Amino acid sequence: MNTKSRLVALLAIGVAGTTVLAGCSGGGGGSDEDVTLQWWAPNLMPTIAQDEAYYKTLTDKFTEETGIKVETQVNAWSDYYNKILGAISSGEGPDVLASGTTWVSTLTPSGGFLQFDDANLEAIGGPEQFTQTAWDAAGGQNEGGTSMIPWVAGVTTMFYNTKMFEAAGITDPPTTWPEFVEDAKKLTIDTDGDGEIDQWGFGYPAGFAQEWSHTMFAFGEQNGTAFFDEDGNPTLNGEGMVDAADQFLQLMTTEKVLNPASAELQQMSDVQQQFINGEIAILFGSGSNISFDDAGFTDYGAAQIVLNDPLPGEAVTTHIAGVDMAVFAETDHPEQALEFMKFLVNEDTQLDMAKNINGIIPTNSAAAADPEVTSNPVFKVNTEILANTAAGFPDNLLTGQAETLIGDALKGLAAQAATQGTVSRADIQAALDEANSQLEASQ
């Protein structure tokens, strides 16, 4: 598919990007020593500087083994989706890029990436090296194959402060929503007697639209409503979605276990720091233990996010998170790009990543089964979550837009909750009706 055709395809699903980006490394031919690949890498560690330093160890090793040089650009997640769309629509991007798993169903049909047919799969070591869950989440079962390869997997986990739990007389982490709310109330206290709450039961980045979309996906499923119905029609305004939004917003307005100032937090790292500082007792996060360990903070435990009780819908606590890799269709160096992909997914690289980025789940099955990985207590919890209560984002061309629209709607509702102290079901319904109407208009 040429650049013009890809642009038309993206416009047809309402997600065309507008940014014109730096082009691929130019010049075909020549030896591997003459090739410099451009790689858009993901932000997986507490800071981009840490990512850059670690990725350099990987690319230096790859260059030493192959002679192929790699220039790495680490991308924050906040606007990365639009950046990828801009690359696809313009035909100008890197040789290899990372994608979030929730974007796979929207991005792969664009024609912007190299298709992994049998020959290309063989070039990276074959599909059998991947865990089945990661392979499926990357589109491995798609008709006609996939253009995304799983790199790392992850889930959203409940982290709790063990010392605060002990002080409150809570012996085990909650497993149901009513238990969670009850525990959060016990943990929301004025510790210094000045009349102001300074330890909150729950922490959440309520100003972070992307995190809201992940929460709404899981708790919408729990309440019996998915992003789309069985015919693929948007249902962002379904009753279960309203229920999911209502129960979370009530944590701020009615239950008063979530600080209204949370509406200003736009990154998960803000909440992780609050946890480390002792300002909150519970958070729901993906890979948050990386930040805890990096700060030398050890007073935490990990468990599955709670389930509603009663449970009208599906037992889903998290989307299947993680990062997939793709080769840009316009690359001048497809063979070298595939060689780099093979390096990124092999057992040795995946083991090295698991040791250095605590909290990720390798997608290479041999690495995921290695005792050095499985002995980590958070890894044990995460693999159980992945096996039992994780679900992939919907396979729908509009999924990327759905994620953006419902996230923005909840971010706005959280801001209202923080400033006005109340959000009615009618307010929630109206916001989700508007989000759903915008999604329907893109069909």
UniProtKB/TrEMBL annotation:
Gene3D superfamilies: Periplasmic binding protein-like II
Leader sequence residues: 1-22
PROSITE patterns, per database record: PROKAR_LIPOPROTEIN
Keyword vocabulary terms for this entry: Signal
Pfam families, per database record: SBP_bac_1 (PF01547)
Record-linked InterPro entries: Bact_solute-bd_prot1, SBP
Keyword hit for Protein biosynthesis: no
Domain of life of the organism encoding this protein: Bacteria
Protein name (Swiss-Prot/TrEMBL): Sugar ABC transporter substrate-binding protein
